[in-house]
Each structure stands twice: as C-alpha cells, then as structure tokens.
Amino acid sequence: MSVSTHFTHAITRRPSASITRGLRAVDTGTPDLALMQAHHDAYIATLRSTGATVIELPPLEAYPDSVFVEDTALCLPQGAVVMRPGAPSRLGEAAEMTPHLKALYTTVVQVTGADSFIEGGDILVTDREILVGRSARTNAAGIAELTRLVAPWGHTVREVHTPPGVLHFKTDCSLLDAETILSTTRLSASGCFAGYTVIDVPEGEEAAANTIRFNDLVLMPAGFPRTRDAIAKAGFTVREIGNSECAKLDGGMSCLSLRFTPS
Q1: Which pLDDT tens digit goes with each residue over 149-171?
Q2: Would you call 246 a catalytic residue per the annotation?
C-alpha cells in the first residue's frame, strides 16, 4: 500500500467569514461563504467515507486564507515539518497549526530561516521522492532547509519549477498512485515527471489538475467531465466535489487538508 496515497488521518479547517478577503491572482468574484461551507462539508464527508479520522479545526477570522491548511505543513510518516508561507499575511497560520501536529506526532520540526519561504502547495510527495516547485511562494532557501530537515528520515528532495503565472506546483499536478501523476501539459512538457506514468489534463480543463488520491478515492473538482473520464478510464474511483468558491481564491482539492498517518 502506497504511503503517499493511503492515510489514517486528515486535518481540515472551517472557512471563516473573512475568506472574502482571501488572496487571489485574478479577481473572479467574491466567494459565497455558505456555498463554500457546503462544499467543505461534502469534502470532509468524502474523506471520512474512506474510514479516516478527519479533524476539523475552527475558523480563524484573523487569517482569511486559513481554510487552505495544506500550505502550513508537510506531513510524512516519520514526522511533520511546519512550513514558512511565502505570503506575509499567512505566516501566522503555520504557528496556529503547530500544536495540532504536536498532539499527533512525536516529531515536529520547523522551517525557521528568515530568508526561507516554502508552502505545502508546492510539494508533491511520491513513494520515491519529494518534488518541490520553485514559485512565488517557495524559494531556494526554503527548499534547501526542507531538504536538510527530511534527510535524516531518508527522504530525497528534488527541486522542480512551477510554470510561470501558476500559484503552486500542485495547482498543475497531483498524484494518483505511486507511479501515476495527473498533470497539465504545460507542466509535464518540462520533463519533470520522467519515469512516471503521466495522464495529461485535457486542454481547457487545466483547473482539474489539482486532485487528491485519498485511500481508495480520487477527489476532484466538479465540472470537468473529460478529466473525470480520463481518470476513471485509468482505473481510479472518482468523487467529484464542488469547488467553485475555493477556485475564486486559487484553491483546489489538495489545499483543503493535511493528509497523513502519524508516527
């Protein structure tokens, strides 16, 4: 069983009313909090349907983007690494997550360098390596510090590059199983997934590249039928979740949870 796709736990956080002030690359409208919460409830229910323990944390009004918990930490079987977000308004979110990780893990370490920035949305963990995308939110110093922190646990980090104009590396890719990656063609064309099986997202459905494999399900945003059919054709069981409101804030399926099996 793949340690990068099968988990016993997930952490989520309810969206706060301040989400309307969340960061976004392009303004496509103000998120509807009630609809976002309904989508969030469906997301949590789907995770729980696999038998996992899902911890739902309360909203943080002081941090509009705090529903996107994935950026705060990297959770590995051996321990958790608290990130140092590249958006100044999000720095406090990592500190808020730390005690919850310490309650579940015996080992929690932290990226602390004043010049280091790194967010979980730029990190794709496979069974053989950890790929980290350089982006506006993740820099070379952050990647170097992460590399040092996870080396004692036996993990290898490989730096890759997030496409220009794309928020996070995982905006454009996701892991479907130990050897299969769903990707946009603009990312896979770089050759960064050499040695893996790649399923390219159909043109016009690039926003569907961010899915999550969680135990026996692939959760993907609703509204992308060609991508859904391609994933299903490859033999995966797909669940579609509404994501229209999170998408207004550049958020996707992976952003909404930390997924792990704690040590």
Answers
A1: 999 999 999 999 998 888 899 99
A2: no
Distance CA 92, CA 63 (A): 8
- Does the CA dihedral 232-238-240-246 come out positive or negative? negative
**What's the burial of 124, exposed, middle or buried (CB within 10 Å: 0-12/13-18/19+)?**
buried
For residue 255, what are its two tokens? Answer: 């952003």
Q: Which tokens belong to 216?
A: 């026996």
Question: Exactly one of 39, 168, 173, 246 is catalytic; which is it?
Answer: 168
Q: What are phi and psi of 105, to 5 degrees?
A: -110, 145
Exposed/middle/buried for 31, CB within 10 Å: 0-12, 13-18, 19+?
buried
Element (H, E) at 150: helix 140-150
What the block records as the tokens of 46 is 């789907």
The per-type count for the chain, helices as H runs and strands as E runs, is 6, 15
Cβ–Cβ under 8 Å, residues 156 and 148: no
Active-site residue, 9 included: no
Please give the Cα distance from 261 to 79 (Å, whole number).
9
Distance set, CA 69 to CA 13, 40, 202, 228 (Å): 7, 13, 28, 25
Please write the tens of the pLDDT for every residue from 209-242: 999 999 999 999 999 999 999 999 999 999 999 9
| Separation of alpha carbons 185 and 205, rounded Å | 11
3-class DSSP state for residue 77? coil
Catalytic residue among 75, 192, 246, 255: 255
